[in-house]
Amino acid sequence: MKVKTILVSQPEPKVENSPYSRLIEKEKVKVDFVPFIHVEGVEAKNVRQQKIDLNNFTAIILTSRNSVDHFFRIAEEMRFKVPDSMKYFCQSEAVAYYLQKYVVYRKRKIYVGKRTFNELIPLIKKYKDEKFLLPSSDSLKPAVPEQLDEIGVNWVRGIFYKTVISDLSNLRDVYYDILVFFSPSGIESLMKNFPDFEQNNTRIAVFGNSTVNAATHAGLRIDIQAPTPETPSMTMALQKYITSVNHK
Prior knowledge:
Layout: E1 5-8, H1 19-27, E2 30-33, E3 37-41, H2 44-49, E4 59-62, H3 65-77, E5 87-90, H4 93-99, E6 109-112, H5 117-125, E7 131-136, H6 143-150, E8 154-159, E9 161-165, E10 178-181, H7 184-193, E11 203-207, H8 209-217, E12 222-226, H9 234-246
Parallel strand pairs: 1-2, 1-10, 4-5, 4-7, 5-6, 7-8, 10-11, 11-12
Antiparallel strand pairs: 3-9
Helix pairs in contact: 1-9, 7-8
């Protein structure tokens, strides 16, 4: 079965020349982007109910752009002026770069990991005397608190935002050759929105082990998987699959 249409369960990339635009151009496929989940901020009063006082922290652990946005939103709602002495521990270059939206980069103490949370841990460990705040969503990978407890730092988690399933009722009668998922929440959204979903000839593409597990658990057949040594990105995995079925 040839591939003509793809639905990616994420917002459209903001960059002009994204790998998806190259895929569209090369393979003449139609790619739509529809976020299956979205993020909603938790109100400041809910954060207060978690007994979080921003004055008590000397360092912030930022794992995503959402955590950056919602930390500064809550700080503003609480009328908390973030001190210049605050240390920022960013999981990746992308998160650190995004931080510039809120702080003057060269004047701040910013520590950057490579990509995974695991790679940020040695940096956090070096500053054991700091009081760390981890602004997170309501769903947090269990490995994150485990690793922080393991190195024995003084840290507190604050739920500053939550992941919410989007309403996809407008997709009910739309058919795509491939559905692309990046998180277990995306799979959950598909099943909640379409409890009678039958896969039939629809190919399912998944990124990451937790998404693989969620798809398998939901009884879906996985046709495309990333990352692998051969296809480290989703677009590369899609390209390889499309080449195999469209150019027979």
